From TrEMBL:
Gene3D superfamilies with a match to the protein in the record: P-loop containing nucleotide triphosphate hydrolases (3.40.50.300)
Source species, domain of life: Bacteria
Keywords from the named record: ATP-binding, Nucleotide-binding
Record lineage: Bacteria, Bacillati, Bacillota, Clostridia, Lachnospirales
Protein name: IstB-like ATP-binding protein
AAA+ ATPase domain segment(s): 198-334
Keyword Nucleotide-binding: yes
Record keyword Nucleotide-binding present: yes
Naturally occurring in which organism (per UniProt): Lachnoanaerobaculum saburreum DSM 3986
GO molecular function per UniProt: ATP binding
InterPro entries linked: AAA+_ATPase, IstB_ATP-bd, P-loop_NTPase
GO process terms (BP): DNA replication
CDD domains listed in its UniProt record: AAA (cd00009)
Matching NCBIfam families: PRK06835.1
Length: 341
């Protein structure tokens, strides 16, 4: 479950409110029945008094018949149901009603998360990601190769761009399965030889409209559906947030929380790197983000029009060196797909 304690506690408080509201609604229904069927109040209380009476009798006689008690309780239940039906109520009208019958509005079934809790967590993760709407359209299921050239060979690859993109898509799907399994305990953890690095981050590089952001969103949807936290920010939004927090000292909660999640989310997506106004501050902050996320073994996806050499010239050798060593570099080719849509 990739949400922080405060978010989890907020969801649990939501369950408490649901249970309280449902109990209050039950009380109102019971009072409504009592008003229409005065005898029901007596029948309702007789079940408990009957059990007490049977228990006292057993103490005197030394015998207790659970069968007799069950018969008496069933008889009272039958009378109550008949009265409810005669008055135009359903037989379960006085019972408590749950939003989720499976977990009884607790969020858990035998210590395991109920589907309703998983749904609430997923909804929260989607809302936090800034991708709630777009990934419904941009995902692996909707990925199409028809926009990529399937006639001419890519000079550097000796295959068509369509075939090349098939390989890229398969790699991205395998990447999510390798590092972001639904069961986190099954995520692949290699014991690598000294000096080798298990690269869990990606740079998508290429010209405008070749599928960099689309592929990032495809990966993001898989992670969100598997309850990993994802934050998507354009480079401009990312650095504007950091300026607000670190330079302007903004205390707005949305900026403070976002700046925190930049470092702590399972997957950070930085889109269109190089489009922002860069200066010493952005260069320094970019290094700190990349370096910290590498050190804490958190994944990052960067999409950019910049080549690695151009990235070095823009953000310094120190930044690019970390990216070269720890990121998988995927070059995308072709013309702007959006111009053909």
């Amino acid at each position: 479950m990739a949400i922080d304690n405060s978010s989890y506690n907020a969801i649990m408080r939501e369950y408490e409110n649901i249970r309280a509201n449902n109990r209050a609604a039950q009380v109102r229904r019971i009072e409504e029945v009592y008003e229409k069927i005065p005898k029901m109040r007596e029948l309702n209380s007789s079940t408990g008094s009957l059990a007490v009476s049977r228990y006292k009798e057993s103490l005197k006689s030394g015998e207790f018949s659970s069968t007799d008690l069950k018969k008496d309780i069933d008889s009272i239940k039958y009378k109550k149901e008949e009265l409810l039906k005669e008055a135009g109520f359903s037989t379960d009208y006085m019972d408590i009603r749950y939003d989720c019958n499976d977990c009884k509005d607790t969020g858990y079934i035998d210590s395991k998360k109920c589907h309703c809790l998983q749904s609430k967590i997923r909804k929260l993760l989607y809302a936090q990601s800034n991708l709630e709407d777009i990934v419904g359209k941009e995902n692996f299921d909707n990925f199409s190769f028809e926009y990529y050239d399937d006639k001419n060979l890519l000079p550097s690859q000796n295959i068509t761009n369509a075939k090349y993109m098939e390989g890229v898509k398969k790699f991205c799907e395998a990447f999510t399965d390798k590092y972001f399994n639904l069961d986190r305990s099954k995520n692949e953890k290699k014991s690598l030889p000294q000096g080798e690095i298990d690269r869990k981050s990606i740079v998508f590089s290429g010209s405008t409209g070749v599928g960099k952001t689309y592929l990032s969103n495809c990966i993001a949807k898989v992670l969100l559906d598997r309850y990993y936290s994802v934050i998507y920010l354009s480079a401009k939004e990312l650095f504007e947030t950091l300026v607000k927090v670190n330079i302007e000292k903004s205390e707005e909660q949305k900026y403070l929380l976002l700046a925190k999640e930049v470092y702590e989310c399972d997957m950070l997506i930085i889109d269109d790197l190089g489009s922002e106004l860069f200066n010493h501050f952005t260069t320094s902050e970019f290094f700190h983000i990349i370096n910290r996320r590498i050190n804490t073994e958190r994944s990052t996806i960067i999409s950019t029009n910049l080549s690695l050499d151009k990235m070095r010239d823009t953000y310094s050798e120190r930044v690019t060196s970390r990216i070269r060593k720890n990121f998988i570099y995927i070059r995308l080719y072709g013309n702007d797909i959006r111009a053909r849509l």
